[in-house]
Design goal:
alpha+beta, nine-stranded mixed sheet, 26% strand, four-stranded mixed sheet, disordered N terminus, elongated
Length: 371
């Protein structure tokens, strides 16, 4: 990861992500720091945390500092008559951190494709998710699943609605023993239980997993969805970071179709997550579909370098009697090499820099090279 010109690792990463998204035609989206509290109450199951900072507006309306970006984008995006709207964001959200259990301001970068995303749009979003991970670290993995396959099997084997959350939880944890127990309690037959258990442990490169998935679901109504999945992943055939993992699931009240999570080496949890959330739009009264993802920058703090290794690259010392115009010209001369220049009339004891220069009548003279 490039950390040149004194930028923090976080800022370099965000700049790379923004450039990536704009190359594919995604427009920046900016929103308010707060929304009506009712928006989050009605969709609290969609939120990572149901703890929300609230305040009363001057008109008496209860407001909330936004704990989520997607809900705000959906609320403030009008339905499109065909086609899609592609946006990306760089926003702060306000959530309870798992590590401290205190509220934190968390920076989040992501994108949304709303309207009528077709097969290419789905592939493009997956590609951008995989490339986003590469902007963060070279050693990364994007785990992709299709929630429609899983929910189709739950319907096929008549898993009661009250048991589906438990089944999905076991799938997500790859807990074969508990999954079998939940299926037995829900009245799922031996064939269905075995199929769901095998599904949970299918993992690997698409070219390896897809043939197994085709064989496993050949005689089920989910077979066409396997082909849809294969078509969506085909443009990513050369991307070695992509893996198929049918244990990746989401809340079936909101998500459908493709769901995915991204991981980078050295970080124990997912640093990126996303998927198709048509059901969320339907719940919010929108006649449209959508797919998107978010990168959680707070998960990456251990990867980012300190804000600055040096306070400045060059320090230019000048005498008080030297004219401001002379100092300004000398600063510009040093900046021509791409350096950060700090002009001072005295050198602070703890200032960290690469080189110290002295401004003389004849020009600048190097006093000290600390590199």
């Amino acid at each position: 990861m490039n950390t040149s010109v004194g930028l923090r690792g976080e800022e370099v990463t965000v700049a790379a992500l923004r450039t990536l998204y704009e190359r594919y035609g995604y427009a920046p989206y900016k929103m308010s720091k707060f929304e009506e509290y009712d928006l989050y109450v009605r969709n609290k199951d969609f939120l990572i945390s149901d703890s929300i900072i609230t305040f009363t507006d001057t008109n008496g309306k209860l407001m909330a500092l936004k704990p989520d970006v997607t809900l705000s984008i959906v609320k403030n995006t009008a339905d499109t008559n065909g086609g899609v709207r592609k946006v990306y964001y760089d926003e702060n959200v306000y959530r309870v951190a798992k590590s401290t259990h205190n509220f934190r301001e968390i920076r989040q970068v992501g994108l949304e494709c709303l309207g009528a995303p077709d097969a290419y749009c789905l592939s493009e979003v997956l590609l951008l998710a995989a490339e986003s991970l590469r902007c963060i670290a070279p050693d990364s993995v994007l785990d992709v699943s299709h929630l429609g396959i899983v929910t189709g099997l739950l319907e096929q084997y008549a898993v009661p609605a009250q048991s589906r959350t438990a089944v999905l939880k076991c799938l997500g944890e790859k807990n074969r023993h508990e999954l079998a127990a939940v299926c037995a309690e829900a009245g799922v037959n031996a064939e269905g239980t075995a199929l769901l258990c095998e599904l949970a442990f299918l993992y690997g490169a698409p070219e390896t997993v897809l043939p197994k998935l085709r064989a496993l679901l050949a005689n089920t109504p989910q077979a066409p969805l396997v082909e849809q999945l294969a078509d969506t992943l085909a443009p990513l055939a050369d991307n070695t970071a992509v893996r198929l993992d049918l244990s990746v699931v989401g809340d079936i009240r909101y998500y459908n179709g493709m769901v995915f999570k991204g991981f980078v080496s050295g970080i124990p949890g997912a640093v990126l997550s996303g998927g198709q959330y048509d059901r969320l739009l339907q719940k919010m009264g929108k006649a449209a579909g959508a797919i998107g993802f978010a990168v959680y920058l707070n998960m990456l703090e251990d990867l980012f370098v300190p804000a600055r290794q040096y306070d400045a690259d060059e320090v230019l010392l000048y005498d008080a009697q030297v004219s401001p115009a002379t100092v300004a010209r000398a600063v510009l001369q040093l900046q021509e090499r791409g350096s950060r220049v700090m002009a001072l009339n005295a050198l602070p004891e703890k200032l960290v820099c690469r080189r110290v220069w002295k401004l003389l009548e004849s020009g600048v003279e190097l006093l000290e090279d600390r590199t």
